[in-house]
Amino acid sequence: MSLTYSAGSLVAARGREWVVLPESAPDMLVLRPLGGGDDDIAAVFPSFEEVRPAEFAAPDADDLGDQRAAGLLRTALRVGFRSGAGPFRSLASIAVEPRAYQLVPLLMALRQNTVRLLISDDVGIGKTVEAGLIATELLAQGEASRMTVLCAPALAEQWQGELREKFGIDAELVLASTVSRLERGLDLGQSLFDKHPHTIISTDFIKSTRHREDFVRHCPDLVIVDEAHTCVSADDTHAGGRSGTSQLRYELLQRVAADQDRHLLLLTATPHSGKESAFRNLLGLVRPDLATVDLESPAGRARLAEHFVARKRADVRQYLTKEDGLADDSLAERTAFPSDRWMKDEPYKLTPEYRALLDDAIAYAADRVQTAGSQGKREARIAWWSVIALLRSMVSSPEAAAQTLKTRSTAAVARSAEEADILGAPLNQDAADTDALEGLDVAPGASESENAGARLLELSERAAALAGQQGDAKLKALVKHLKSLLADGYHPIVFCRYIPTAEYLAAELGGADGKPGKLGRKVHVAAVTGTLSPQQRLERIEQLGAEGADDPAARRVLIATDCLSEGVNLQHHFDAVIHYDLAWNPTRHDQREGRVDRYGQKRDQVRVITMFGEDNGIDGKVLEVLFKKHRQIQKDLGISVSVPDETASGVTDAVVEWLLLHGRRGSQEALFEVPGAQQTLDRVERDWNSAAEREKTSRSKYAQRSIHPEDVAREVASVRAALGGADEVRDFALAALHGLDALVRDPRDGSGDFTAQVGGAPAGLRDALAATLGNRVVEEDREIPFRTSPAIARGEAALVRTDPAIGALASYVLNSALDSDTSGPRPARRCGVVTTDAVTSRTTLLLVRYRFHLTLPSRTGEKQVVAEDARLLAFEGMPQRARWLDDEAAAELLAARASSNTNPQMSRNQITRTLDGLDELTGYLEEYGERLAAELDASHRRVRRADTDTRLREIVRGLKVVPQKPADILGAYVYLPAIPAAAGVTPAGAVA
Prior knowledge:
Elements: E1 10-13, E2 16-20, E3 29-33, E4 42-44, E5 52-53, E6 64-65, H1 69-79, H2 103-110, E7 116-119, H3 127-140, E8 147-151, H4 156-167, E9 172-174, H5 179-184, H6 192-195, E10 198-202, H7 209-217, E11 222-225, H8 241-257, E12 263-267, H9 276-286, H10 298-305, E13 308-309, H11 313-316, E14 318-319, E15 333-334, E16 342-348, H12 352-373, H13 377-394, H14 398-406, H15 417-428, H16 454-464, H17 473-487, E17 492-495, H18 499-509, E18 523-528, H19 534-546, E19 555-560, E20 576-579, H20 586-593, E21 607-613, H21 619-637, H22 645-662, H23 677-701, H24 709-723, H25 726-739, E22 743-745, E23 754-757, H26 763-773, H27 775-779, E24 784-787, E25 797-798, H28 804-818, E26 831-836, E27 843-856, E28 863-876, E29 883-884, H29 887-892, E30 898-902, H30 904-916, H31 922-943, H32 950-953, E31 960-977, E32 985-987
Parallel strand pairs: 6-26, 7-12, 7-13, 8-10, 8-11, 9-10, 11-12, 16-21, 17-19, 17-20, 18-19, 20-21, 24-25, 26-31
Antiparallel strand pairs: 1-2, 1-5, 2-3, 3-4, 14-15, 22-23, 23-24, 26-30, 27-28, 27-31, 28-29, 30-32
């Protein structure tokens, strides 16, 4: 007759000890190795294999370690935890340590039965991490089983990498380029959205009717929508073009959101875009009643606060301080966002030859517009977009001008004036709410027929002849600005409007045939444009980032078009921006700068240079009317307010009309003489001020108040107590590798990175590391880089608790501590005696492992979980008369250092007296376990707190936390106060 084992109990089988998991049945035990992870879970059949009850053995008095033993063993144990006992089931299994403020959306989510959130934190704060935290938690708790991210195709690979590297979620890319391959692997009648539980889907791909219907039918129970503002449009926006695309997406999301049991996360840094109706449409996706709720009333704002979070950098730069209402700054967290950007406008003047070319191009444009005006409205609009293309490419670069003059205008195929606007506007304007920047960096074309006329070809040839610093003063000015930035240690990105310009700059600046480029031998230059696929762009950026990485004198220059101006994170490799081409909407500049000016940027100050032609007739006026107003609003509010697209295009239209009427030399004042121009500028001022006022009001009116900083502080303290932090993992890795005879090199350069060679380490550790880092790395005793970033290459290790190499190191340290027969060095031991100035009386530190049986309610029923927790407990005196210390005092003992050596025989005597009295401590250990269980129960209920909503109270109904007895004493360490040498203690370094 086989025994019945309860969940959480210990059993011995297959030569090791295991924890029984709740999924077990009488005839089949589901077991996890003691100290192991979920990857080591196994099923054992008692009828066919020997299984017996096990008890955790007490430490051995003859196996003493040094002052580091307790800390190493504690961290090795905690690294093995993959699901903590606290309310956040997933935090132990992710490879990122979230900032405290990033837990706010997670806390908001856990208080909802069905999670519906609009996360609108400022650019660079970390919306992807916030969404990843929620997704990982919902999946870990069983509240969601499948997940989809809807995003722009250019961001799909980045989302895939973030989810895999930071959250351990493997998601399949569903793009136009991958769908054929994915569909070939389907069974008959199977949907690819069923086959692949986690997907990242291009919003462009999902627009097709067939795939859209299939997605709606098989939609996962968790959907994340990135750049959600591109999926709605204002009620008064005209149909067609971008707004038509937005309407298709809006209709799709309405159908997705219609299932009230589906979790939905909407992410956007610009929820308003200056239009109240678009904001209301977004809110309606979160909850239908929010579309019409009275946001002027306290009740309406309170309702919104449950589902909406929007913070700017200033709100979170310093968090959990006394200014947030906390009693002290003990948990204060300061996030190192870059300080205010260093910005400078740098003018340049055209060469005489370039001025003559531009004058002739303007004269041609004026003639063409005048002629087309008499030929009908369609012809006039085609001519208008052709002229704008000509002028914008002319002031961009000789190469862009040459290609544009030979290329047919996109608008030339239009059959009506309206169609000409739909085709021409995306390529020739810089709309703030462009939902996809793909394909918008090509040379737009100025010819209105298949073959460019003789006049355009002549202009094209003249433009091509001006390439190079002699004819192109703009390029010459760029070289000067780049050399200045590079000399100051910066790695700049140069943003251009067109592909030909980017390729022209890369060719002019980069070296060829082994010769250095114009910027010097140690400057690496690369271009990234829309000619590359999104994956190729990321690969080229990483390749450029790796070039010269080991040479402090090496510098990087990236030439890019606006295919990189949204979504892609560039802050790890670059720290300055040069706007080579002035965009016609300041919001585009914000998007470009936001790629490097964000969390994770090591520079305190990002430099931004805006180049403009002071004599080309265009740049100066755009800068004066649009950019200076934008900067003033940003300075006043501390945030960027998007320029409404109609406003920006109205200004640039007036500038072009002025240029065609007066030529390049006309005065600034003449701009206001163009019919309707003054009214346009007045409307710009009025609309922009109105948008700024709305944004200012909404930031204060809809500030996140549903989660109080005290709530966050309490949970942050709990998480840190259970799991530790990133610094602990790094300190552990350094100490453990040193203790295991690895050759460690720590450059102490502020990066936190170091390297190790493990050729001299024990064979068991080498074998474990070879399995994760590669056999050749270990066999050839190569240097293994240990990096603070979770994004690593093959053969490297990340200093995070979930990295396989860190896991292998922790497992070896733990197992060797538990097995005294392990050959070779054993840096962690289960016992130790230390003589130290840190105590004034005999003090004992215990490392205790508690196991808890949790009953967690969910929408799909109760879930049974076994979780572990490691705690440090300390007492003064002997076990029979223990005077227990608080948790803080116990943790401080880990930092205690030996002030003198301790006589070996005294050490054995002291630890033996402690171990013999462990039974006397059972009552307190059990009492502490019960208290810890009560705290965990309260924490689960607190996190899911719902004050009045009966439906939400179901979240905690049935919740139960029960400690498994007895607790395991993994380590016992005695600290003796320093006493005179005559009493048996010799000075440090002396022979006992």
